[in-house]
Design brief:
By secondary structure, the chain is an alpha+beta fold. It folds into three domains: 268 residues, no CATH class; 187 residues, no CATH class; 135 residues, Aminopeptidase. Helix content is 62%, strand content 6%. Strands 3, 4, 5, 6, 7, 8, 9 and 10 form an eight-stranded mixed beta sheet that branches. Strands 1-2 form a two-stranded antiparallel ribbon. Strand 5 and strand 6 form a beta hairpin. The chain is globular. The two termini are 35 Å apart.
Length: 685
Amino acid sequence: MTRTPPEAKQAKGLSRYLSHLPAVLGLVLLIGAIYVVQKEFRHLKLKDIGDALRAIPTTALVFSFIWTILSYFILTFYDRLGTIYAGHKVSYGRVAFASFCAYSLAHNLGFAAVSGAAVRYRLYAHWGLTPFQIGKTVAFCSLTFALGGLVLGGAILFLEPKTIPFFGQHLPVVALYGIGAGLWAVVIAYIALSRILGSFTLRGHHIDLPGWRMALVQVVLATVDVAVTATIFYALLPDAPALTWTIFLGVYVASYTAGLAANLPGGIGVFDTAMLFGLEPFVDAPHIVGAIVVFRLYYYIIPLFLAGGMFAGNELLMRGGAVSRFFGIKPSPAGQPAAIPAARWSEPDFAVAAATTLVAVSGALLMTLGVIAPNTDYSWLDPEFAGLAYHAGQFVPSLIGAGLVLMALGLAQRVNLAWTATIVLAIAGAGFAATQDNQFWVVVMLILCAALLAPFRSCFYRHASVLSGPFRPATALSLIVLTICVLALVLARHNAIVEGNNAWWAVAAASGVPNAVRFAVALPVVLASIAIWLLVRPGRVSAETWGPEAARRLRALGGTPPGKADGLIMGEAGRAQLAFRREDGMLIGLGDPAGSPGDKVSAIWRLRDLATQEGRSPAFWGVGPDLLKVYRDLGLTPLPLDGEGRIADDRAPDPPAGLYVACAVENDLPALTRLAPDLPVRSPA
């Protein structure tokens, strides 16, 4: 048996820790945001925010909306130039549609490069672009946006270095100038490389740069886009003589960068806190929060639902045959052209992603804005119940909001328990809202959450940790902690009387409440959130060691056992199985899963989860065309195999063997090319 060198083990361990860095960074930034809010803005009242919203002039709302339209219009040229760079020019109407759908989803879900890429893969593949061309388009769009931030960030660090939130007052001006010069140096180097080299090789990969003229257009386009997007927010603020557009731009760029680094949906919490902190010396907090609410409505929420409706309509057109059969429309007579068939798009479907985002937004509203006010009198029913309902009407909805935010994370992981819990929490929140005065819109919002999720039960196929495998001590501990936290919140709430809105976070942040009570409220919520996530998160994946019995079961499901394998993984329902090998830091699935079609997708996702647990990169060798969308959803690029089992030219639309390899091209393609002669190639099903 070959022993792994110590250096390789150390590198593997380091890689595993680094893979968790984005999540840790997001958590740290979110905790920092909560700390700043409770320290600096604990005296903020909802009435003041409402007054600030009503005080925004109609002209400001109109101009801000116009700037929003202009911003999304500029974004369409990212995709337009990207398809030209990829070598497959697409009509402007199509790239505008793809750009609007992709950016609307990416802005709301976070991880923009991944969530936006899923939409682009779906649309551009249908319009004839190959995986390599789509990957180049996605990379071009991501790079273009980064260039704009670098240009404006460098400019602000030279013109208004002290306006940068958190850092401007603590770093010396010389250091800020140096950072700004570094940002500009990156942009200048990119244009220079495009002019001088045109292409280069990085870690064995040949990379073609756009021409220097296109690179220059990229920089100008991205700079204008970021400036226009900032102006959406700036137009909503009241007049403040000391707050120039340049100063505001510095605050906005720094805040938006922090939101991106947090990898949270829409940078929620982090972006908002940075804006509050950066603008507080110039504008009072209620007006800043009011501008944030309208900005998020214009730039995030409205585009998301517009794009969702447009994308759903496009799906109906692309699946014209199924729609026609549903409505009883007869197929076209012989001789007339038939509709182009479209492959099914697996999870994450745009509709599911939109519903997940609505859950997160609804939870944030319930938790942070205190939309449910205790206005209903229950004394006619029972005086004791009236007091309990009064306190619950203030406190429980904010806890439901925190629960919905947690469930949104579970929904993003496709956990079936999160689907059930979200519907229960949404209905419970709607029930509380229905007992209050003038809260009909809250009821509608929460019922809409439940209604949007209800038809997609099959999309959430991963078992939660609490339901995976035998009952473990860690699961019991999480349940015990959760029970204790709930009881502690009931006792703490009974002693926490705060005027006005009385959400749990308001109690923790209020200055008039004893520190002991604030601590008694905040700590149980934090511990309960951790316990809930440990229970709801996807369970750990285990695999069976490869042997004669594993090969027999795979053959019984209709699969062809490979000559060499390291293990066998099953789907969530146990009705699909997939053999795999461990090679060169990768976990390679050998072909498509065999077994029940309804369980094949979960087998693929479970192999991805197993690879993550082991600190490896997932890849799939010799897969057919039917499940390519699933592999793309994992962030992998399908590449065709030729008749001899070698990786073929991506430009060939129909590979001779009808088989593909799905992998992370930038990391795993060289290793898979070396391993190709030793990997099995089956006949496509």
